[in-house]
Automatic annotation (TrEMBL):
Keywords: Membrane, Transmembrane, Transmembrane helix. It comes from the Eukaryota. The chain crosses the membrane at residues 198-218, 230-249. GO terms for biological process: protein ubiquitination. This is DCA17 factor. InterPro entries: DCAF17. Pfam families: DCAF17. GO terms for cellular component: Cul4-RING E3 ubiquitin ligase complex. The gene is Dcaf17.
Length: 527
């Protein structure tokens, strides 16, 4: 009867047509046959276990390298991606080790490619994670993430471009952009008065299965002489200029309007009178998208150092007024009408060597994170009371560095009674005071993580803290065992039950420290 009752209950659940009610019921786990329910419950359990007092993070592995170290989804890459180490096992172990590559095979950039859900793919290997890499000789390779085996290879550079260097996502895990280095004419051409008008080349690919959409050039004749950089994100072509101007164009519309004809990888085509094959050496890819006129402008803004971000709901953007004196001042404006939000000027008035920074929260809540040396503000957009068409910036919560023992008096009195006045005040990011260096978000556990550092003498100490993403409450603090030098470059990754710290020292020396979650059974027998 219970089984029958459960079977009868299913249609009633499916009959709920209100979107909000459906989402609430799903979050509460009403639909037990939903594949995501068990996964969400498991992640909830992992979060509770991880934040217990008895749970510790232990340094299980340390390595050093003369080449950069990269981390992607549980895999550590070393020796220019020739060595892959998994960090998911009990202890890190080598997945594959390839022979040392030559200079011509050096990898310039890489992206991790994961299988899309619910799609039929042509090859069994497409269902497993793979690594898209770009070599110095303009080869685009798709490698197995588990073995390093080459699954696909595409030659990019034809007669038009010889220097592809950067990989990025237009739409994550769907559309990929391969960008060239800025095209600069040789000195001989400049002396001869030959003008080079093409600045960048962009090659566009659909991934899984890997297919060529088109290639286009960014030309001075179309976009102007002062272009310094370009990027593509979420269907928007972003063009940046030397005077701080940022212009946005509809990238999809550009592809549709200016594509001369589509080409497929492996297809024969005529290249300057010679028959070539798309994506094969030596012909590469055709430049089949020719922008002949300036595309319609979607939006433009002027910002210091081209710093420009879009997010929130309704849509807003963040800029810094384009004057050096405004560095560290952020304006939050409506994308619809450029109106400055109420309380939309955010200025921490920091006196520090490193500037504060601001960005839209990656949890898609529309909130904003503003990070200073000793203060993290999480801000939210909300309607102004009695003015539904106007938005204001309100404080959601703050996280403050632990500086309880810090005394910074400008006037001190010696034991003999002499009054001493300081000629200077200490900086907000004084290394001897706890200072925030990294703020990140773990989406699967819904935790906000912060790295705070205090350096006394030559020895710096850091700790990674986990905060409730909704209210900012401190849930756990984990001290990092290794010394932290604030003059070095650092990256910290928090991925479920793993913490990974990559450090770059002078003279291209790199170190990697791996921590894994362990339970202290002496304190908690239930772990």
């Amino acid at each position: 009867q219970a089984a029958a009752g459960g079977a009868r209950a299913a249609p009633r659940a499916c009959g709920v047509h209100n979107v909000c009610r459906l989402l609430i019921r799903r979050a509460h786990g009403f639909y037990a046959r939903d594949a995501g329910v068990a996964h969400r419950k498991n992640l909830g359990l992992l979060r509770k276990i991880m934040c217990q007092e008895s749970t510790k993070f232990k340094n299980v592995w340390t390595t050093h390298s003369a080449s950069p170290i990269a981390y992607e989804r549980g895999r550590i890459y070393m020796d220019n991606y020739q060595c892959c180490i998994t960090s998911i096992a009990q202890g890190p172990r080598i997945l594959y080790q390839k022979s040392k590559c030559t200079k011509s095979e050096k990898i310039e950039d890489a992206l991790l490619l994961e299988c899309p859900l619910g799609e039929m793919l042509p090859n069994p290997s497409d269902y497993k994670p793979s690594l898209i890499v770009l070599t110095v000789q303009n080869w685009l390779l798709r490698l197995s993430a588990d073995s390093g085996e080459v699954l696909e290879k595409v030659y990019l550079a034809g007669s038009c471009c010889k220097f592809f260097r950067y990989l990025s996502w237009d739409t994550p895990q769907e559309v990929m952009i391969v960008k060239s280095a800025q095209n600069k004419p040789p000195s001989g051409a400049r002396q001869a008065g030959i003008r080079q008008t093409v600045l960048f080349y962009l090659a566009v690919f659909q991934v899984l299965p890997l297919s060529f959409i088109g290639m286009l050039e960014i030309n001075k004749k179309i976009f102007g002489n002062s272009v310094t950089d370009v990027a593509v994100s979420n269907g928007i072509l972003i063009v940046m200029y030397s005077m701080g101007l940022v212009r946005l164009y509809n990238f999809k519309a550009i592809l549709e309007q200016f594509m001369e004809r589509p080409y497929d990888l492996g297809q024969e085509f005529n290249w300057n009178g010679q028959v070539g094959v798309v994506g094969k050496y030596p012909f590469g890819l055709p430049c089949n998208i020719k922008i002949t006129d300036t595309p319609p402008l979607l939006f433009e803004a002027s910002s210091l150092e081209n710093a420009f971000q879009i997010g929130g709901y309704p849509w807003h953007y963040i800029i810094t007024p384009n004057k050096r004196k405004h560095k560290g001042v952020f304006h939050i404006c409506s994308l619809k009408d450029n109106a400055l939000a109420k309380n939309g000027i955010q200025d921490m008035k920091c006196c520090s060597l490193e500037p504060d920074w601001i960005y839209f929260h990656p949890d898609m809540s529309g909130r904003i994170i503003h990070v200073g040396p000793n203060l993290i503000k999480v801000l939210k957009l909300k309607e102004v009371k009695n003015h539904a068409d106007q938005m204001e910036i309100a404080e959601d919560f703050t996280i403050v560095a632990n500086r309880e023992n810090c005394v910074n008096n400008s006037v001190t009195v010696t034991a003999s009674g002499r009054v001493v006045k300081k000629r200077f005040t200490s900086l907000d990011d004084d290394p001897e005071q706890e200072t925030f260096k990294i703020v990140d978000y773990e989406d699967e556990l819904d935790l906000l993580s912060t790295v705070a550092v205090t350096q006394i003498g030559a020895d710096g100490r850091a700790h990674l803290d986990f905060h409730c993403n909704d209210h900012g409450i401190l849930l756990k603090s984990i001290p990092l065992q290794e010394s932290w030098d604030v003059t070095y470059s650092h990256e910290v990754y928090f991925d479920k039950d793993l913490i990974l710290h990559i450090e770059q020292k002078p003279n291209r020396r790199f170190s990697c420290y791996v921590y894994q979650m362990v339970c202290d059974t002496a304190k908690d027998d239930d772990c």
